[in-house]
Amino acid sequence: MIDSNILVIDDDDDILLSAKLFLKLHFRNVITCKSPKEINVLLSTNDIDLILLDMNYQKGASDGREGLYWLEHILSIDKDYVVILMTAFGSVELAIQAIKKGAIDFILKPWENDKLFATLSAASKLTQSKKKVKKLERIQSSLHTDIARKFENIIGDSADIQLLQKNLLKVAPTDANVLILGENGTGKQVYAYEIHKKSLRNQQIFMHVDLGSLNENLFESELFGYAKGAFTDAKEDRPGRFEMAEGGTIFLDEIGNLSLTLQTKLLSVLQNRTITRLGESKERSINVRLIAATNMPLNEMVAKGTFRQDLLFRINTVELLLPPLRKRGDDIQVLAKHFIDVFSNKYHKPAKTLSLQAKKALQEYSWPGNVRELQHVIERATIMSENFEITEDDLQLSPHKFNHQQAVAMDLPLEEMEKAMVAKAIEKHKGNISRAAAELGLTRAALYRRIEKFGL
Question: Strand 225-226 to strand 27-33: parallel, antiparallel, or no bridges (unpaired)?
Answer without folding.
Answer: unpaired
